[in-house]
Write a structure and sequence with these properties.
The complex is a heterodimer of chains A (about 190) and B (about 180). Chain A is mainly alpha-helical. Chain A contains 8 helices and no strands. In chain A, helix 2 runs antiparallel to helix 7, helix 6 runs parallel beside helix 8 and helix 7 packs antiparallel against helix 8. Chain B has 8 helices and no strands. The chains are: A mainly alpha (about 190), B mainly alpha (about 180).
């Protein structure tokens, strides 16, 4: 190695390389996020209407973040996206019993019972928590799921109420905690039995 | 910044992890690729501007790390980017008059251990890349390199097969993204 490759040169190169990596990753993330957000935006437009598209930049930001961080967060986001997509498949009368159709048509917050919206979100969150993998990546995957669901739910919640998204995250956290506690409890019992 | 040398398979796995966003793979990859980039640049353009070219190549490698396809070999992809950078540098400086020191730096001793190491790694990287191709493509390239008999097909068919094989090799080396 030549003399000019001093420690400071190496450190400076390291910093520049790291910045290049993060910048490159961000560029790739924007491209990949658009591949998800474009169809989601189209479906939102067809299902919910133009008013919900005002939240599309938030969805894009969520997917850029998920792609940029990558790993468990991105995997979780795709699970979350699938969970969120379910809400699009269900009729509003079933899923959103407390939604005022007149207000929704005007593009306003239409949830007449925020507690019910919160509970619906919590239920979806709890169900998603059951699919979480074990290990150290559990919380990051859970965060990704929240991000994925919120990125889609917010497009519908703009005409409903943000309570659903909050409820979903609460349900997800509660589900993860419950699953962890159950695993610990079962592990302790198994340990005692042997 | 020191550490045990990383084996090729390990490097492939690390680059795959970095491509999917695992930042813990950055350090070992940087440590493994930096000296390789410098050695390669030194053997091709001499000591004069090797440091700058190696650094610039490394920036490109890491900027494109997210585009690396996990499961593919890392070294051919890496050397393709560095070779591109060296080629660009040569083109940029083609009309410049060399000073004595730079001209001297360009005279690479083929028996120099560093040069031999780089050549060995390049040959190995090319071999790995060719192995990743399908049978027709790899046989065509090997035949063109004189490492295998030319397949008993019409000359025009062979030329077409070789052209397709080079195109596949370019894609494998990340050439479809090359600027």
């Amino acid at each position: 190695m030549p003399a000019e490759w001093t420690v400071s040169t190496a450190a400076s190169e390291y910093v520049h390389a790291r910045r290049a990596y993060e910048r490159g990753r961000l560029r790739t993330s924007v491209r990949r996020a658009l591949l998800v957000v474009a169809p989601v935006g189209l479906v939102t437009y067809l299902v919910t209407g133009r008013a919900a598209l005002t939240w599309l930049p938030v969805t894009l930001a969520a997917w850029v973040l998920a792609n940029w961080r990558g790993g468990p967060l991105l995997r979780g986001s795709f699970f979350g996206l699938a969970g969120g997509a379910v809400t699009y498949a269900l009729p509003m009368s079933i899923l959103r019993a407390y939604c005022s159709p007149e207000m929704m048509a005007r593009g306003e917050d239409c949830c007449t019972n925020p507690t019910a919206c919160l509970a619906a979100g919590a239920l979806v969150g709890f169900a998603l928590a059951l699919t979480l993998p074990g290990g150290s990546s559990r919380w990051r995957t859970a965060a990704g799921m929240s991000l994925g669901v919120a990125s889609v739910a917010i497009l519908r919640c703009s005409t409903l109420f943000a309570g659903e998204a909050v409820g979903l995250m609460a349900g997800l956290i509660a589900g993860v905690v419950a699953a962890t506690m159950a695993k610990l409890w079962l592990g302790t019992r198994g340990h005692r039995a042997t | 910044m020191a550490g045990a040398p990383i084996r090729e398979a390990e490097l492939d796995a690390l680059m795959g992890r970095l491509a999917t966003g695992d930042r813990t793979a950055f350090d070992p990859i940087f440590r493994a690729l930096r000296p390789r980039a410098l050695r390669f640049a030194q053997t091709r353009i001499g000591d004069g501007s090797a440091t700058d070219v190696a650094q610039s190549a490394l920036l490109k490698v890491f900027a494109r790390a997210s585009e690396f396809v996990p499961g593919r070999p890392c070294m051919p992809w890496f050397y393709a980017i560095v070779a591109n950078e060296i080629q660009s540098h040569r083109r940029r400086n083609a009309r410049l008059v060399l000073d004595d020191a730079s001209a001297e730096g360009r005279l690479v001793d083929a028996n120099d251990p560093e040069t031999q190491l780089v050549d060995r790694e390049l040959r190995r990287a090319l071999e790995v890349a060719i192995e990743c191709l399908d049978d027709d493509a790899s046989n065509a390239i090997r035949a063109a390199l004189g490492q295998a008999p030319v397949p008993s097909v019409a000359a025009a068919t062979f030329r077409k097969r070789l052209s397709r094989a080079y195109a596949k090799l370019r894609v494998l080396l990340g050439g479809h993204n090359a600027r």
